[in-house]
Write a structure and sequence with these properties.
This protein is α/β, with parallel strands linked by helices. Helix content is 29%, strand content 24%. It has two domains: 168 residues, Quinone Oxidoreductase, Chain A, domain 1 (Alpha-Beta Complex); 137 residues, NAD(P)-binding Rossmann-like Domain (Rossmann fold, 3-Layer(aba) Sandwich).
């Protein structure tokens, strides 16, 4: 079988594409044939050394495939079931804890940049029936983060005003979930063509943050006093403007650090706005089950960018690094 592994010191040039024998299923576990994966910023951080790893780690948190063998004692799955991976396989339900979030697929344990894996039964959930493996491979990290941000943390409802930032996979999922909830969506990007594509996905108000350095104030003005919910992806580069954009008592959910790990905060504005400032990391398996049910019932389809063969994984990460993508970058694990 084909797979990608990371050699230390971590760097894109240290990614190696190779082959090894397929693993055998063991009692209490499930063997999965992965068909597709997708790239997240977290994966990029692992393979470039921004997050610590170990020599020989198989990267990529997201996978979609089918069960090809079931070990003795497993009752939840059968051969032929279409499944997707779980980002935190030990976080089944309830609140996040240190113990249940230390194990991360493609980070502290091997990920999905491989054609076959043997995993714990609880490390999988069913794939939404209407999605292809490429589409379903976008769900475990980006989609679940957006779902948790808006549905779980914010309790989004019809008529709410939501600000999403940029055109990466998570932000587009946030836009799609907000529209499904009947919310009014404000979206930012730095490129006119991407803004227009965000409009076609249902964004009501568009702001070019490259041309408008005070885009947070613009969003506050357009929304008549601030939006109810902000999904903040940039950290250092966006949090100050997110604070300007949110209404008094609104929600800012911090889901990313694309603009840097440290962000200055205007304490006076923070006190005046009184927002619920909530940093999150993906979500539990129970949240993923709820999300997949919602996606299946609504017929939502993820927005895909380009597809790369596993043998071109480095090129895929370089495409991600360039920022030219719109939606999710797919890795074809059969190629």
């Amino acid at each position: 079988m084909k797979l990608a592994t990371l050699k230390l010191p971590a760097a894109l040039s240290a990614l190696q594409i190779g082959e090894r024998p397929e693993p055998d299923v063991t009692p209490g576990r499930v063997k999965v044939r992965w068909h597709a994966s997708s790239l997240n910023y977290h994966d990029y951080a692992v393979v470039t050394g921004a997050l610590p790893s170990v020599d020989g780690r198989i990267p990529l948190s997201d996978g979609a495939g089918e069960v090809v063998a079931v070990g003795a004692g497993v009752r939840e799955w059968k051969v032929g079931d279409r499944v997707i991976s779980v980002f935190f396989p030990k976080w089944q339900d309830g609140a996040a804890t240190l113990d249940n979030t230390l194990t991360m697929t493609g980070d502290s344990i091997d990920g999905c940049a491989v054609q076959y894996s043997v995993v714990e039964p609880q490390a999988l959930t069913p794939m939404p029936a209407h999605l292809s493996p490429a589409e379903a491979a976008t769900l475990p990290c980006a989609a679940l983060t957006a779902w948790r941000a808006l549905v779980v943390e914010c309790g989004i409802k019809p008529g709410d005003r939501v600000l999403v930032q940029g055109s990466g996979g998570m932000s587009i999922f946030a836009l799609q979930f907000a529209r499904l909830a009947g919310a009014e969506v404000y979206a930012t990007s730095s490129l006119p063509d991407k803004l227009e594509r965000l409009r076609t996905l249902g964004a009501h108000h568009l702001v070019n943050y490259r041309e408008d350095k005070l885009w947070g104030e613009t969003v506050r003005r357009l929304s008549g006093g601030g939006v109810d919910h902000v999904v903040d992806v940039g950290g250092h580069s966006t949090l100050a403007q997110s604070l300007k954009a949110v209404r008094v008592g609104g929600n800012i959910v911090m889901v990313g650090v694309l603009g840097g790990l440290e962000a200055p905060l205007h304490i006076g504005r923070l006190i005046a706005r009184q927002p619920r400032l909530r940093p999150i990391a993906v979500g539990s398996r129970a949240m993923q089950l709820d999300m997949c049910r919602g996606i299946e019932l609504s017929g939502l389809r993820p927005v895909l960018d380009r597809t790369f063969a596993l043998s071109r994984l480095v090129d895929a990460f370089l495409h991600q690094e360039s920022g030219r993508h719109f939606g999710k970058i797919i890795i074809d694990l059969a190629a």
